């Protein structure tokens, strides 16, 4: 008896991962190089030799979820007043989601402050890629960063974006 393993990524909008006809020896095979947090359709074909025919079985399997492996795109800051800003961002490229994105962390602080002195704001995935931050100090230079979150953890933060709050507005 000989076996052949084929697989394809169910989410064809993001991925083109697929393989056909990987010869497998024995009754187990390990697929490698798969995307994290992704569902695959897997088919195993057993050839029974000679003219006795072929048996085929298929299943779906989902790889383990991981934190997003890339940051959100296009972060922008709009100054609303001397103490308030709106932060907007685009999506994480779908092949870097590594599972379902459940929300976003917005990290901000005064330029030169340590990570421990920065504030964090959790934003729902349904926020439309936007958060308003209030209570900032007038005439102060801040940085802001955004990272996507899955059930497995926080992903990669964007590069820091620097802005200054005005004296009054």
List keywords for this structure.
mainly beta; rod-shaped; 12 strands; 4-stranded antiparallel β-sheet
Notes on the protein architecture:
By secondary structure, this protein is mainly β. Helix content is 0%, strand content 47%. The strands form three sheets. Strands 7, 8, 10, 11 and 12 form a five-stranded antiparallel beta sheet that branches. A four-stranded antiparallel beta sheet has the order 2-1-3-4, with no helix packed on it. It has a three-stranded antiparallel beta sheet with strand order 5-6-9, with no helix packed on it. It is rod-shaped and about 80 Å long. The mean pLDDT is 87. This is Neogenin.
């Amino acid at each position: 008896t000989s076996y052949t393993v084929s697989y394809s990524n169910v989410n064809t909008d993001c991925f083109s991962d697929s393989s056909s006809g990987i010869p497998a020896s024995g009754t187990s095979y390990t697929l490698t190089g798969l995307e994290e947090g992704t569902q695959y359709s897997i088919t195993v074909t057993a050839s029974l030799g000679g003219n006795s025919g072929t048996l085929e079985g298929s299943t779906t399997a989902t790889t383990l979820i991981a934190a997003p492996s890339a940051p959100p795109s296009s972060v922008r800051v709009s100054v609303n007043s001397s103490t308030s800003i709106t932060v907007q961002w685009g999506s994480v490229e779908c092949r870097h989601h590594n599972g379902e994105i459940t929300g976003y962390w917005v990290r901000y602080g005064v330029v030169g402050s340590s990570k421990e002195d920065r504030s964090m704001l959790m934003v729902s995935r349904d926020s439309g890629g936007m958060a308003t931050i209030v209570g900032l100090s007038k005439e102060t230079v801040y940085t802001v960063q955004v990272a996507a979150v899955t059930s497995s953890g926080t992903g990669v933060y964007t590069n820091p974006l620097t802005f200054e709050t005005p004296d009054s507005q």
